[in-house]
Structure formats: structure tokens, C-alpha cells
């Protein structure tokens, strides 16, 4: 039981454990060897903290590790003047208090020996086994990372690859950085600032992703004090002024305690003070702090079901602030965090935030992966279990880390990797979205359907054409919210590729690197030519029947019935020539023609589906080309039919026609089909002064909000 829970009947304010006197530890550490039958006094605090979490732990290996570490570091001093052995001792104590298992603590005691002493990895392996050796080797690689060096990106990438298979290595590094940050005052101010910035940009986000909140919050406060000393002092003064009798949270906590006791729910109600950075953030958000803003209530219970029982009582007996409710038990965060979040209104309108979780959830919330013990230890007597899925498949390699390791392999350029890593770690939070097959995806806040497509399908997402979000059709640019259900939709044409516009909507490294890589492999596609875009996406049409290949010959009322393509030359110079409405060719399209009723020649784009259909029924093609190599359509310009696929919204038609007019095109005819599943198809027959303006016209139409595809018509264009 934690110190916070010492008295279940009364709310307690969490107090920090007194810091160990490192100078005293140093003196104890230098007393020389001890007998084999007892633990050295210098690691007594480590043993005490370790036994609190693991009562049956065998401390023999810790004793041997300490003896080797102390003897190998003997004579070395820290900049603070303390014996060097105090550093691995302090790092190991931090991890022991978080509940790390014995192997991690052993490696922590030895984590600097290979780097800074004569001890070799082979010696570590011989004396402590493969697992401890692996962890020490991983930490040694981390110690070699110079975050300010020119080779930083590639070095960090190699470090990530070397240590990513076991996050216990990163846990030791985080504890190492915490102790170094605690003793940073002996450094020059400029070096303090450099170390603090790296801690802020890389290590604190990693601590967040590993779920080690206890390390993360203290690191945040230490960085805050170095990089923003004035705001830190202001926040410290505010917290000091708010500490004392009359805390409104104590009144609410007492009321909650009695409410739950009367309901027969066994629970501990604690007051959990906010750390400095948290108070600072609340102050910036609200402007003026309320008395209840300096802490939150923490309710600890035995079972998951008890969490919901507590929630029900609170929402029944107090006025809840519904907008503050979040269920991270049913949908855990990406870093294994589970808890119910809510807020209730207490006496005189005071609002208190409440966290509800089990003791196990609280341990994981504080210590993250450190609290999970040895993830590779198997109980031979235990019954085999089905393998978990998604984010919690392997607690030492949570989903975000698996994705990180996957996309770093695709980012062949170190600078791209480093920049993308920094951007990814800068995300304030992640969201969980649900897949229609029952799985989940962890994505950064602000992620779009593009990100979901690549997270679910990898490179197959190059063929994505849209998505369904919560059962409704959505564009790939749609931003997802926590709890959404998403189903990316893929085209049948596996040869198609992504649009450059997708990079504007991709927030995840996996998506951005995959899209960028595709364009690197297809340089000619980096700026797709709209003239070659067919309706192979959601607006694709069925192939026309041969009988309808010529809308110009279909009778009166058709938009092209009197039009003659004077810019086209065919083998029969006397035959009337018409441009087919199913594909509306314009220069520089390659052409082919067919004789239709009345002796006229209808000219199609060569890749038009109608061409294959005509040939299948035995129609002989007629050679056709643009006149004089220019393909101009007399003084009237060129005519083209475009299909715009969009999602219905007010003023869509007006915005599209405005875009067409702005591109200097005239509308000959237009039809709007009835909406289907929130999707609307517009078909426009347009006249342009020159065929060269077609790419710009199509881009302008695509830029209209709600429009997700504009293509050349592949079907007879009906006109009203």
C-alpha cells in the first residue's frame, strides 16, 4: 500500500519522500567489502524499496552487482564532489521505488561500468547472465549518444534500433537522466539549458509514451525551473500560498469519502496535488486559478467494476461536469494508462476533478512499463492464454514503439528520421480510434483518415480513396477524434498511388514517410497531370455500351449534337467529326475514332473504355489526330466534360460554379445527381478558351471544400 493510502478514512495530501543523503551514501559506500551473508549498508534503501514491491525478491544478485560497481568506480568522483557510486545507487533507488524487477535493478547498478571502468561486457555476461548483459549493453549505447553532435540523427536512430526491443533499457536511461537533472546545478548555465532542452524535446515525451508519469512529472518541473525560472518562481509562490488550512478539495474529499462509505463501496479518497508544470498549464488555460485547481481527487478501489460503481455514486450524489468525463478503462491510452476521469461540483460551486482507478491501474499510471515486472518471465504452471492484440500485445514494445521502429526502417535519410521523430514526440497526446474489424489504432491528436489508412494497411494505403468514419462516408483529409470508428476504403486498382495533397493531412511518421517514399520511387507522379486522371476512384463509372458511344448522335437535346471538332483530322476528310462525350478528348490526348450512324466519325481518347467495347463487337477503328500538331478547336476553344465527386453541404454548387468561372471556363451544361450516402456527383460540360487551361481548372475544382475527386468523364454526360 502506498504512503498516500496509509489512512483510508481521511483524505491525505501526497508528500514527497525525503531525499536520500547522497554524501552519506558515498561515505557508506567507501567503507570497503562486507561479508557475503549480508547486504552492503549503502544499498539498504534500494533493498527496502525493492522488497516493498517484490517481497520475495532474491537480493543476492543485487549485492554482487553493487560490489562490482563500487569496486570498479572506486576513486571516480562526480562534478558535485560525491563519489561516483552514488549515481548508480540513486538511479537504482528511483527504479526500485517505481517497482522495477530485480534484473532491471541489477543492470541499473552496473549501467556505467562498461562505459566508464575497466569492466567488460563479457565479464558482465559471465557473472550476471545474458539478460543483464543485454540491458547494460543497451544503456551503454544510450550513454554514447551526444544529442548536440552533428551525427545526432543517425546515432539516435542506431540507439533506438539497439534498445527498442526492450523498453527496460529506456527506463534505466530515464532514471539516469532524472538523477542527473536533480544534480544539474553544478553545471554551467548554458550546459544546463542544453541538457534541459534535450530532456524536454526527447526524453520527457518518451517517458510519457512509456507511461512513467512519476519520472515525467519530476523531469518536467526540473526543466521548467531551468528554462523558465521566472514562471517557475511565480508558480511556486502560488502553490505555497494555496497550501494550508481551508483547502476546498479537503471538504469535497471528505464528502466523497462519506458518500462512498454510505454506499458500501470500499475506496481510498486521496488528494493528489498537481505538479508545477500542471498548475502552470491550468493557469495559462483559465487565466485565474480556483482553489480546487491545485490538485485532483484520486479514488482507489479494488476491481474494475468498483470504478464504475464509484462513478455512478458521484454522478448521483454530486452535480457532474459531463464534458470532463473520459473513460480510459474501456479504451486505455497508448501508454497503458487506465482510469476514469470526471469532475463534480462541490459546496459553493467548487469544481473538483476526480480520477478513479484500481490500485493496479494506479501503479501502472505512475510507473508505466517499469511496473509490469519482467515481461519475459513465464509461469510454467499457468494455463496458456490467447495472445492479446493491438497496443498491449507486448508491454515492453507498445504499439507506438512498434510503429516507431517500423517507420525508422523506411526513413533512409537520417535527417528525415530525426525531424519526424521530434515532430512525433512533440504531439501532446494520442487518440484511440476503432477499426471495423474490432481492433484499435493509436494515432496522434489531429490525425486524419490518411494516417488511419497507413496505420492499418501500410503501403496498400497508397490506393486509398476515402473512408467511413462512424459509419458515414468521409474524405481522407477528415480529422479523427478520440473514440471514432474508422474504415479506410481502398480502390481496386492496385497500381494507383497517393496524391501529393495527402502530405498536407498526414500527421504520423508512417504515413508521411510512406507517401514521400512512393513519390521518390515515382518521380513522374510527384505532380500528377490531371489530364491523365481517369475516374478510377469513388467516381468511377461503368463502361458505356457501344450503342451510346456518341452522345452527339443521340438525338436532339444532347449537348454536343451540332458540334464539329475542326481541330481533329481523320482518314476520311469528308466525314463529319465529333468528339465523344464519354471521354471528351482534348489535346494532347491520343485519339482513335469509329464510324457511327450517318457516316460521322466519333473520336475518343485512346484509353477510353468505349474503344475496347467497340473493338470487341468488331468495329474497325479510324485513325485520328489533332490537326497541325496543336489540336485547337477553332475560335470556340475546346469542350470537356468533368465529373466532380463531393460530399453534400450548403453552397457547394455555388462554390463549384464560382471556381469554374474563375478558371475562365464556361458551363455548357450541368447535372447534379441525387445524393447517395452523403455523396454527390456533379457532371459539367465546359468550354475552355484553350486546352492548356484544363489542368488548372481541375485543380481549382478540387480545391473547393468537400470535393474529393475531379476526373475526366468516362460515360455519356447527360444534360438537362
Explain what you see.
This protein is an alpha+beta fold and 720 residues long. The chain folds into 5 domains: 11-227, Hypothetical protein af1432 (Orthogonal Bundle), CATH 1.10.3210.10; 244-371, 2-Layer Sandwich (Beta Polymerase, domain 2), CATH 3.30.460.10; 405-528, Ubiquitin-like (UB roll), CATH 3.10.20; 546-631, no CATH class; 636-712, Alpha-Beta Plaits. 39% of the residues lie in helices and 15% in strands. The protein contains 24 helices and 20 strands. The strands form 5 sheets. Strands 1, 2, 3, 4, 5 and 6 form a 6-stranded mixed β-sheet that branches. Strands 8-7-11-9-10 form a 5-stranded mixed β-sheet. It has a 4-stranded antiparallel β-sheet with strand order 18-19-17-20, with helices on one face. Strand 18 (666-672) and strand 19 (679-688) form a beta hairpin. Helix 4 packs antiparallel against helix 5. The longest helix is centred in the first third of the chain and has 21 residues, at 189-209. It is elongated and about 110 Å long. Residues 1-20, 31-36, 148-152, 378-397, 527-562, 629-635 and 715-720 have low confidence and may be disordered. Residues 84-181 form the HD domain. Keywords: Hydrolase. GO terms for molecular function: hydrolase activity. Belongs to the RelA/SpoT family. Residues 429-490 form the TGS domain.
The H-level CATH homologous superfamily of the largest domain, spelled out, is: Hypothetical protein af1432
Radius of gyration: 34 Å
Q: Report the structural category.
A: alpha+beta
- Stretches with pLDDT under 50, minimum 5 residues: 1-20, 31-36, 148-152, 378-397, 527-562, 629-635, 715-720
CATH class of the largest domain, please?
Answer: Mainly Alpha
Please tally the β strands and state the result. 20
Global morphology: elongated
End-to-end Cα distance: 77 Å
Tally of helical runs: 24
* Mean pLDDT value: 76
β-strand percent reads: 15-25%
Helix content: 25-40%
User: In CATH terms, what is the fold-level topology of the largest domain?
Assistant: Hypothetical protein af1432
Major sheet: 6 strands, mixed
CATH architecture of the largest domain: Orthogonal Bundle
How many structurally independent domains?
5
Region (Disordered): 376-398, 520-569
Biased composition (Basic and acidic residues): 521-530
Keywords: Hydrolase
Pathway: Purine metabolism
Amino acid at each position: 500500500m502506498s504512503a498516500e493510502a496509509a489512512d483510508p478514512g481521511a483524505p491525505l495530501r501526497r508528500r514527497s519522500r525525503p531525499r536520500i543523503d547522497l554524501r552519506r551514501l558515498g561515505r557508506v559506500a567507501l567503507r570497503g567489502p562486507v561479508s557475503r551473508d549480508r547486504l552492503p549498508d549503502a544499498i539498504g534503501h534500494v533493498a527496502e524499496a525493492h522488497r516493498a514491491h517484490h517481497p520475495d525478491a532474491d537480493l543476492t544478485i543485487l549485492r554482487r552487482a553493487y560490489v562490482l560497481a563500487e569496486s570498479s568506480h572506486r576513486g571516480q568522483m562526480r562534478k558535485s564532489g560525491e563519489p561516483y557510486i552514488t549515481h548508480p545507487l540513486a538511479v537504482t533507488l528511483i527504479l526500485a521505488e517505481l517497482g522495477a524487477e530485480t534484473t532491471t535493478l541489477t543492470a541499473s547498478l552496473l549501467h556505467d561500468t562498461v562505459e566508464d571502468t575497466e569492466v567488460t561486457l563479457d565479464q558482465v555476461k559471465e557473472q550476471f547472465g545474458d539478460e543483464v548483459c543485454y540491458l547494460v549493453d543497451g544503456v551503454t549505447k544510450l550513454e554514447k549518444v551526444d544529442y548536440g553532435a552533428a551525427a545526432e540523427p543517425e546515432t539516435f536512430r542506431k540507439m533506438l534500433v539497439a534498445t527498442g526491443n526492450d523498453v527496460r533499457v529506456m527506463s534505466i536511461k530515464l532514471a539516469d537522466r532524472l538523477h542527473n537533472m536533480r544534480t544539474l546545478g553544478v553545471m554551467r548555465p548554458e550546459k544546463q539549458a542544453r541538457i534541459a532542452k534535450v530532456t524536454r524535446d526527447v526524453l520527457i515525451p518518451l517517458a510519457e509514451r512509456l507511461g512513467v508519469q512519476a519520472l515525467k512529472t519530476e523531469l518536467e518541473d526540473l526543466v521548467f525551473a531551468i528554462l523558465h525560472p521566472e514562471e517557475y518562481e511565480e508558480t511556486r509562490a502560488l502553490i505555497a500560498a494555496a497550501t494550508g488550512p481551508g483547502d476546498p478539495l479537503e471538504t469535497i474529499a471528505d464528502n466523497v469519502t462519506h458518500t462512498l462509505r454510505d454506499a458500501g463501496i470500499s475506496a481510498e479518497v486521496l488528494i493528489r496535488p498537481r505538479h508545477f508544470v500542471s498548475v502552470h498549464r491550468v493557469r495559462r488555460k483559465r487565466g485565474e486559478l480556483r482553489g480546487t485547481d491545485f490538485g485532483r481527487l484520486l479514488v482507489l478501489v479494488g476491481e474494475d467494476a468498483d470504478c464504475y460503481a464509484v462513478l455512478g455514486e458521484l454522478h448521483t450524489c454530486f452535480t457532474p461536469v459531463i464534458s470532463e468525463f473520459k473513460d480510459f478503462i474501456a479504451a486505455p491510452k497508448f501508454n497503458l494508462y487506465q482510469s476514469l476521469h470526471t469532475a463534480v461540483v462541490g459546496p459553493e460551486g467548487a469544481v473538483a476533478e476526480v480520477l478513479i482507478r484500481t490500485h493496479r491501474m494506479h501503479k501502472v499510471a505512475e510507473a508505466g512499463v517499469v511496473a509490469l515486472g519482467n515481461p519475459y518471465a513465464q509461469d510454467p504452471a499457468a494455463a496458456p492464454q490467447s495472445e492479446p492484440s493491438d497496443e498491449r500485445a507486448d508491454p515492453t514494445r507498445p504499439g507506438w514503439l512498434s510503429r516507431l521502429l517500423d517507420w525508422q526502417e523506411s526513413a533512409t535519410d537520417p535527417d528525415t528520421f530525426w525531424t519526424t521523430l521530434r515532430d512525433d514526440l512533440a504531439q501532446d497526446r494520442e487518440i484511440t480510434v476503432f477499426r471495423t474489424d474490432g481492433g484499435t489504432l493509436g494515432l496522434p491528436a489531429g490525425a486524419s483518415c490518411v494516417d488511419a489508412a497507413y496505420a492499418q494497411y501500410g503501403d496498400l494505403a497508397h490506393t486509398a480513396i476515402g473512408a467511413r468514419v462512424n459509419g458515414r462516408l468521409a474524405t481522407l483529409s477528415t480529422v479523427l477524434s478520440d473514440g471514432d470508428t474508422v474504415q479506410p476504403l481502398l480502390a481496386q486498382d492496385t497500381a494507383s498511388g497517393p496524391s501529393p495533397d495527402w502530405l498536407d493531412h498526414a500527421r504520423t511518421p508512417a504515413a508521411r514517410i510512406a507517401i514521400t517514399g512512393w513519390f521518390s520511387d515515382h518521380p513522374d507522379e510527384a505532380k500528377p497531370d490531371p489530364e491523365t486522371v481517369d475516374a478510377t476512384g469513388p467516381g468511377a463509372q461503368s463502361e458505356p455500351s457501344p450503342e451510346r458511344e456518341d452522345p452527339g448522335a443521340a438525338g436532339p437535346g444532347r449537348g454536343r449534337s451540332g458540334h464539329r471538332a475542326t481541330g481533329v483530322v481523320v482518314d476520311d476528310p469528308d466525314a463529319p467529326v465529333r468528339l465523344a462525350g464519354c471521354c471528351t478528348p482534348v489535346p494532347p490526348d491520343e485519339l482513335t475514332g469509329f464510324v457511327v450512324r450517318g457516316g460521322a466519325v466519333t473520336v475518343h481518347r485512346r484509353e477510353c473504355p468505349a474503344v475496347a467495347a467497340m473493338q470487341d463487337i468488331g468495329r474497325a477503328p479510324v485513325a485520328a489526330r489533332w490537326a497541325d500538331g496543336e489540336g485547337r478547336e477553332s475560335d470556340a476553344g475546346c469542350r470537356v466534360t468533368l465529373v466532380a465527386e463531393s460530399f453534400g453541404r450548403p453552397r457547394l454548387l455555388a462554390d463549384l460554379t464560382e471556381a469554374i468561372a474563375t478558371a475562365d471556363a464556361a458551363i455548357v451544361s450541368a447535372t447534379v445527381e441525387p445524393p447517395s450516402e452523403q455523396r454527390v456527383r456533379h457532371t459539367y460540360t465546359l468550354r475552355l478558351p484553350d486546352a492548356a487551361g484544363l489542368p488548372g481548372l481541375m485543380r481549382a475544382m478540387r480545391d473547393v471544400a468537400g470535393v474529393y475527386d475531379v476526373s475526366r468523364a468516362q460515360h455519356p454526360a447527360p444534360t438537362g
